[in-house]
Specification:
By secondary structure, the chain is mainly beta. It has no helices and four strands. The chain is elongated and about 45 Å long.
Length: about 60
């Protein structure tokens, strides 16, 4: 089992993204990487609601 944690905050034109990823290796051929992002002021507009984005990536190596 090998786990990589990654967190960052990016600001661009009033938009702020905070994200957290990790990579969980199940076998040498299979890895899963869930991620979560929180976006403050989407499109740089403070009138927009903040957004939470959840993702999942599956990697298969043959």
């Amino acid at each position: 089992m090998f786990v990589i944690y990654y967190a960052a905050m990016i600001s661009h034109r009033g938009l702020i993204r905070i994200f957290l990823n990790y990579n969980y290796v199940i076998t040498p051929a299979i890895a899963v990487m869930p991620s979560i992002q929180y976006v403050i002021h989407p499109n740089g507009n403070s009138d927009n609601d903040n957004a939470t984005i959840i993702g999942l990536q599956l990697s298969l190596n043959f």
